[in-house]
Amino acid sequence: MMAMKLELAKNSSVLTVRIRQKLIEMAVPLLFLVLCGIGAYFAQLSPVFLINEIIMRMARNPLLVLALIIPVVAGMGMNFAITLGAMAGQIGLIIITHYEINGITGLLVAALIATPFAVLFGYLTGKLLNRAKGKEMITSMIFGFFANYVWQLFFLAFVGSIIPMRNEKLILSTGVGLRNTIDLAGIRQSLDNLLKIQVVQGLSIPVSTLLVVALFCVLITFFMKTKLGQDIRAVGQNMEIARISGIDVDRVRIYAIIISTVLAAWGQLIWLQNIGTLNTYGSHVQVGLFAVAALLIGGASVTKATIWQVLLGTFLFHTLFIISPVAGRNLVGDAQIGEFFRVFVAYGVIAVALLLHAWQKYASTKKL
Amino acid sequence: MALLEFKNISKFYYGNQVLKNVSLTVHKGEIHGLVGENGAGKSTLMNILFGMPVIHLTGGYEGQIILEGVPVSFRSPAEAMAAGIGMVHQEFMLIPGFNVAENIKLNRENTRANLVSRILGPKLRTIDVRKNRADARRALDRLGMALDETVPVGGLPVGHMQFIEIAREIDKENSKVVVFDEPTAVLTESEAEQFLKAAQKLAAGGMGVLFISHRLDEIIKICDRITVLRDGEVVASLSRSEASVEKLAELMVGRKISRLTVAEKKSGSQKPILELINFSVDMPGERVEDLSLKIYEGEILGIGGLAGHGKIGIANGIMGLCPARGTVLKNGKQLPLGNPMRMLNEGMAFVSEDRRGVGLLTDESIELNIVVAAMQSQNRFLKRPLPFFTLEDRAAIREHALKMIRELDIRCLGPQQTVRSLSGGNQQKVCIARAITLSPDILFVSEPTRGIDIGAKRIVLDLLLKLNREMGVTVVMTSSELAELRAICNRIAIVYKGRLAGILEPTASDLDFGLMMAGEYEQRGAAQA
Q1: Model-level pTM?
Q2: CATH 3.40.50.300 in chain B, residues?
Q3: Residue B186 has what pLDDT?
Q4: What CATH superfamily is the domain B272-528?
Q5: Of the residues A13, A267, A355, B487, which has the maximum number of CB atoms within 10 A of its CB?
Q6: pLDDT confidence of B243, banded at 50, 70, 90?
Q7: Which of the residues B106, B116, B117, B287 would you substitute to probe the A interface, choosing the one with the greatest number of A C-beta atoms within 10 Å?
């Protein structure tokens, strides 16, 4: 009897240690869960509206966040350069809009056009990051900024002047440069509407898009179990050992970035088909930042990320997205305040996560 | 027919010849021992065999390697491995986050075809986890290891890691030659025993084994043939029956630096100039724990011990380059730790073991390297023509540099030559010149002769002796080479597992030094008494 009690006590203490560890791991997501709860209380949104919004975002956003996982596993940190993937996706959209290829066919053609661009951009990014080992994150971020201005140069100055293009709907009235916003009416929600279930008035589930997201989750899980996936994990853990084992480290890292960029291109397509308009010079700008913030909020770190963290992070970050402007307006009478808070949170969480990572690294080198 | 043959291999590093016409042959089923002191050229020879990038980056090598009658020259380790040459490394090539089976099968995983791989290529074949585990299990069983193949390697004891590396070599189907680089250095006695049996099993299975070790008794126990390297040359190749521990030791050490001064014990001062009390240093790989030591004024104290036991950590800890705890008293006054500038100001100077990394500004001129520490810590070689503006005093720097170049006999084109282009020995002289420019009372010198040729070694040691005798500098010299410690030191402290194992006279017997470095001095001493 005594022994049994002791055994129980021992088990329960092991359990509490486990629970505590889990809690520490989950600290960031829990904090955001609390924030979402508080926000939801003050926002006073109708549950139907809130759930509808959340489901919609859970369909259109995760692929962009999923795009980050493989570079993290490859030890390259957060790939802020998925901006380039987003651009590749948008190139596809601009072309199908020009040729007026509509509906789900249009979206598929856009994906087909976007892919070679994404592969090329990913290859270039990978080449660059191989020359900046250990500083991949800041390099990818700056490369994203750089690419943004090349984008502007190309579509604002070259299209219509160097590259002949005539299309009243797309080109500015001066005949040079694309319009600020492009209406994607042709493909608007073409994927969402493929299979959509209306549950009640104001609440519908884009099953087709959710299925695509699920498919990519499965594909990534499968991919990590292939030879290339194993090589990526090995490179991520220790480049030196991987190299000595005969793995072509640089090539594996380029593969990781190419996959990330291609996923981002497709992710941007899914996102924009839901939004329905392309903000030519703005849609891609914050893609990297928001995806990284969502992943970190999900409890990932710059060295470890899982699919569950992608889904949880997307859920929390975008719930905050929906709630905070309304909560801000209700609390201080200004929606802008809530918006400020959300942007503050996005940048803040990235800064804190990076700081935590640096601190952990420092602690592990000190402790022997 | 010979399985693997090295023919007249020569290799230069930065103008230093590190291998001279080395030839050796490994036969099928043979265990071939390769012995030599640190720096005798064993690692370089293995790097050549494996086509390590460092060899190609430094201009390749001369001579020929013949594998099963075919001349080969590997451009990368991957090529060498593909040709059937395996290596068990001194540093473990294991990925801590992977489990045992994943490490054994690293980059040689069994895979299965799947729908995607049929379209997009073999890179996307699925990893066959079960088969990998079975293979790993078989290899471990052949070694007689009961280790679970599914546990992560991260937390395992080092002994196990060694066996995982060996299991990996066993598992390779096409392995022809396996190189063991000091495999037993990290093993306990019973593990070493088990390892030697495993090596014999490999050879019995028809592989050639090249076995590098410092433990001579092991070499004699299992090797069929033994090649001795010294200063990059093969000095002997013996069969097991011809070899004995004494003979090998003699051949390895050979012509040694003889004692320069015969125990001319200076002053006999018993006044401690520096005292360490319960001193600990967190230097990765060279930890010092709870060490207490007195350094007397005017002496040359040697610090010796095997690699990894903490001898390097002592000077780095005192000078504040690594985090340290404990008490350091200089002339009875306690000094703060972790503050290099303060230590320099207290009259202590340090010549680091990491010459290219910590010791020198390799792209700067000789003269700047000589004066930079004095400029920083003592505000010397500076002038202030205007308030708030400090300029270097070119004339004073040049004058001092020329004096140092003359006195230390630094072979160079002039004071403005960049340090990178100097040979190792001359770089070391620049380091020493900088240290004595600070006019220290205590000079710490770590591994002063590492990577420099034999003639230059002698000059560096002479220089240290001269500093001590003529300028009265207390010298604390850390070195892996016992012979050079015995050449110039008054006392030699031996460090074992981060603690002081004892202090010996330089004239003490080899046996005493050997036992102390192996941490067995006290037990054996007690047994004898």
Answers
A1: 0.71
A2: 2-93+174-253, 272-528
A3: 65
A4: P-loop containing nucleotide triphosphate hydrolases (3.40.50.300)
A5: A267
A6: confident
A7: B106
